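STRUCTURE:
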């Protein structure tokens, strides 16, 4: 039995379970018209979901992804028990490349390959609008509507992809087949200007922030906080430095051979010459410690210092200067061993907002009251998937927007980067003192944000309308953590976000 066939048995049970959280029980998955050996046909429905949209419960029937030359087409059929207002049906949008013009709503339907750590964005035309038919679904007629969306074609050996459908739990697998695209509303693939699969990257902080790691399949960048590594004005490693360097050595050893650059940085206190010398001596100290932990024939180490010349953030406060005091390690090579983020230390106290277990949830009072629960976290293809259930507790209908308490204006990647404020990127997974952020991907680089605009493998439409009594599921996809039975999820208080913490969330291995 193929991997796709084994998972098909699980999806039937998962569909029923999700329906209890997101609306009426979906229709049974039809039996494919083709044989089991041949796989599903393009017109077969391979899974169904119910999502809240425009004040209605919208049934979504998903067909296989059809590969057509350099492109692929996802077909979904939308139906509802009643038509919705044109301006209210909002599936979700993301930002257009190189601009702040919102794309039309089909762009939030992303295909994800967790085996290769890639995300397939909706294809764009020459004006940065999604290549989809219809181009923007505003309402659902009595007989439903078929939506077809274009993407880059996955490689020939990819036979299934995950689907991020805003409003529903992240689902997989959706079969990928070759053949004719199902009949629809004249999707024009000739208008595709940009269709791409982008690498998913991870960002984590370990040992209470002493080690910060940004990793992709091709490169890893590790930042070691100098205040943990060294005493003030010293290049001698502290006893606490050993654990941080152990973490760095393990992360490097998960990669293919390559040269590791080790760069020391200081703050701007003191003169340039002193800081340059201190940064070089600190880089040399880290190289000496790493050399005792890794094979320097396989991973040659190249130390250097930048002094105060390359600050991470403006040196406008004591906190920022502490961030600028660091030693960075960079290795450009492919990952060879499926790695996990280490979990050490104790969970920090939290008094910024309500605290509850994942099963019991918490009430977050923003512009409206919402109940937030996370009954479990799932391990899917070596990643952690967290399905956050947000229920509107009031009786409001025709609401103008959804749970704005998740839409923080910030980016965990630094001040020269942007994470749009209508995403749920602020949902952080914690185990002990380790913090793990959603996988993300860079969609563009601008003069304003030279570090890039990043979208998370999480909900990019967190402001979507939820009427009283409705529940929206917001999934986040994270790196796999070291073996742990439970995790904690929290949101920090900030501009546009309200703090809460959910603890004791069980981690469940999917078959």
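SEQUENCE:
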């Amino acid at each position: 039995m193929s991997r796709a066939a084994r998972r098909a048995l699980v999806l039937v049970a998962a569909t029923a379970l999700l329906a209890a959280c997101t609306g009426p029980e979906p229709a049974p998955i039809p039996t494919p018209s083709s044989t089991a050996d041949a796989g599903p046909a393009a017109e077969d429905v391979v899974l169904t979901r119910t999502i809240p949209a425009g004040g209605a419960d919208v049934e979504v029937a998903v067909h296989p992804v059809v590969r057509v030359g350099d492109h692929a087409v996802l077909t979904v059929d939308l139906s509802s028990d009643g038509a919705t207002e044109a301006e209210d049906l909002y599936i979700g949008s993301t930002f257009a490349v190189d601009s702040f013009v919102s794309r039309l709503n089909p762009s939030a339907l992303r295909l994800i390959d967790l085996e290769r750590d890639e995300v397939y964005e909706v294809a764009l035309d020459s004006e940065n609008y999604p290549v989809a038919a219809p181009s923007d679904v505003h309402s659902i007629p009595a007989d439903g509507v078929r939506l077809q969306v274009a993407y880059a074609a996955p490689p020939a050996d990819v036979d299934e992809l995950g689907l991020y459908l805003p409003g529903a739990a992240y689902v997989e697998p959706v079969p990928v087949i070759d053949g004719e695209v199902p009949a629809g509303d004249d999707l024009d693939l000739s208008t595709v200007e940009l269709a791409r699969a982008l690498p998913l990257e991870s960002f984590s902080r370990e040992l209470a922030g002493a080690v910060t790691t940004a990793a992709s399949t091709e490169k890893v960048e590790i930042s070691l906080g100098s205040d943990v590594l060294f005493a003030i004005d010293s290049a001698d490693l502290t006893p606490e430095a050993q654990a941080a360097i152990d973490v760095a050595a393990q992360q490097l050893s998960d990669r293919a051979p390559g040269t590791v650059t080790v760069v020391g940085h200081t703050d701007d206190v003191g003169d340039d010459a002193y800081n340059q010398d201190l940064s070089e001596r600190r880089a040399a100290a880290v190289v000496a410690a790493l050399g005792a932990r890794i094979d320097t024939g396989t991973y040659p180490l190249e130390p250097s210092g930048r002094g105060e010349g390359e600050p991470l953030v403006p040196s406008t406060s004591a906190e920022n200067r502490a961030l600028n005091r660091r030693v960075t390690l960079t290795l450009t090579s492919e990952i060879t061993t499926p790695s996990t983020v280490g979990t050490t230390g104790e969970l920090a106290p939290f008094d910024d907002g309500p605290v509850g277990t994942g099963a019991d949830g918490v009430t977050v009072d923003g512009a409206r009251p919402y109940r937030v629960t996370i009954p479990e976290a799932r391990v899917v293809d070596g990643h952690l998937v967290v399905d956050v259930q947000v229920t509107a507790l009031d009786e409001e209908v025709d609401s103008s927007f959804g749970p704005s308490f998740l839409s923080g204006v910030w980016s965990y990647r630094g001040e020269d980067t942007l994470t749009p404020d209508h995403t749920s990127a602020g949902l952080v997974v914690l185990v002990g003192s380790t913090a793990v952020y959603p996988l993300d991907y860079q969609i563009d680089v601008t003069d304003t944000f030279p570090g890039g605009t990043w979208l998370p493998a999480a909900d990019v439409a967190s402001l979507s309308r939820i009427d009283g009594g409705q529940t929206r599921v917001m999934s986040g996809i994270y790196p796999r953590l070291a073996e742990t039975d439970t995790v904690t999820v929290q949101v920090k208080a900030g501009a546009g976000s309200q703090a809460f913490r959910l603890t004791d969330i069980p981690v469940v291995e999917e078959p």
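REMARK: The chain has three domains: 3-199, 202-332, 355-509.
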